[in-house]
Amino acid sequence: MTTALSLDAVSRVHDGGLTALDSVSLTVPRGRFLAVMGASGSGKSTLLRCAAGLERPTSGTVRIGDTDLGRLKPAALTRLRRDRIGFVFQSLNLVSSLDVRENVALPLLLAGARDDGRALAGLAAVGLADRAGDRPGKLSGGQRQRVAVARALVTEPEVVFADEPTAALDPVTAAEVLNLLRRAVDEHGRTVVLVTHDPAAAAWADEAVFLHRGRITGALERPDAERVRAMFWSGAARRPAPAVAR
């Protein structure tokens, strides 16, 4: 299999008739770093939630690999998210009562696996092995986000979804976190889908796609911040694009 994630004509209409996604089609190959960019209210987070199985689309098909998420019962969908998907969120969601190593090991324990050194190895990969016994409250914001990245990668997931993971970080710390995600792709073949409104963050990706009013309206291969910013603010990213973006 060469496809990590695919969306086929996915729409999501919220209660009250608000259309958050409008027939979005998207294919993400394995080992790809994709940035999904758009202004607030463009549908970025809804796209991520549907793609990750956190929210059911109103219509259309979402697949992780060859698994159709729409055909899974709730328990099977929970197992898929636990075993095959990693999450990095702006809110971090670290457990304050657990130390740093225990936080990273948590996905393994929830899956019924033992922490056979993978948690500590993950912390070493993000430069925090020496803080393994500390509680999250003793770390800086950037360090906590690096812990969240280590936790997302510890189960060697097929796809890592990152929702605005650098929004609350200064530029230097944000670059450190994005570099970790970039290395996960380049060195370990992970697939990363990054939702962001920041052109500098999108520049770390292999490709950037643009959302406007729930529709994909453009894409850039090998984006850089200047091209992303120019495309977004020129209005090019607000014009309809072909149904399938690659």
Number of beta-strand segments: 11
Question: What's the shape?
Answer: globular
Helix and strand string, N-terminal first? EEEHEEHEHHHEHEHEEHE
Query: CATH class, please?
Result: Alpha Beta
Question: Which descriptors apply to this entry?
Answer:
single chain, 246 residues, alpha/beta, Rossmann fold, 6-stranded mixed sheet, 5-stranded mixed sheet, 8 helices, 34% helix, globular, disordered C terminus
What does this structure look like?
By secondary structure, this protein is α/β, with parallel strands linked by helices. The chain has one domain (3-245): P-loop containing nucleotide triphosphate hydrolases (Rossmann fold, 3-Layer(aba) Sandwich), CATH 3.40.50.300. It has helices at 44-51, 74-84, 100-110, 118-125, 141-153, 171-188, 199-202, 225-234; strands at residues 3-13, 19-29, 33-37, 59-64, 67-68, 85-89, 159-163, 191-196, 207-212, 215-221, 244-245. Strands 6-7-8-3-9-10 form a 6-stranded mixed β-sheet, with helices on both faces. Strands 5-4-1-2-11 form a 5-stranded mixed β-sheet. A hairpin with a 5-residue loop joins strand 1 (3-13) and strand 2. Helix 3 (100-110) packs across helix 4 and helix 3 (100-110) packs parallel to helix 5. The protein starts with a strand and ends with a strand. 41% of the residues are buried. The model is unreliable at 240-246 (pLDDT under 50).
